[in-house]
Amino acid sequence: MPSPTTALQVITDALYLVRAIGVDQTLTNQETSDCLRKLNDLIESWSTQKLQVYGLSNQTFNTVAGQDTYTIGTGGDWNTDWPPIISEPAYATVLQVTYPYVSITQEQYNLIFVKGQTGFGTDQVQYYLYVNEFPLGKITLWPVPAAIFPITFSISRTLSQVATAATVMNFPPGYINAFVYQLAPMLAPLFGRPVPEDVRRDGEKYFADVKRLNRRPVVMNYDVALTNNWNNWMWR
Fold this sequence. Notes:
By secondary structure, the chain is an alpha+beta fold. It folds into two domains: 102 residues; 101 residues, no CATH class. Helix content is 28%, strand content 22%. It has an eight-stranded mixed β-sheet, with no helix packed on it. Strands 1-10 form a two-stranded antiparallel sheet. It is elongated and about 70 Å long.
């Protein structure tokens, strides 16, 4: 199905797949409301899955001298949409030179001996920890910035929720068809209908097609301290 199309058309096509409504049958207001809620549940679920969200949005924020932790989300220190996922690395650009910052886990951050250590010069930050608390996430920088400078993060988009049945859904190729086939099994129980096996099978196929569309290559990294200019390896 081509995009854009309305949310009602997506719901109707999903119900056709499980034979919950006929060609000339219309939904009641309550049925439409229930189906719309399920569609938004599906969209919200996809927003938590890295391969279901198309594209990354580079967003730049300013640090504060002496501040290591920042809230991010609507109304936070860094005011933007709440990011479910932040892809590494982040980076800062100082005097037209880019400095990458690597993400670490909570466990790795806990092992840092001096968490209040302050950065210096252009080497302001080396690592960042993102904790996706809700409604505001938290980003902790280490070492602590000693000055104001811009830092850029690659943030996964959040798929837009549907306000009404008349809302136009505009997504990249393949998304609408995947929505229809993934929504059908969610709506079938509301109407007491079984889900045909071919609908489940095709739904998995279209779901995989979208994930392939958003697949990003995996690049192997290693700590630069493992090597040096004389090609000697350091076990530490």
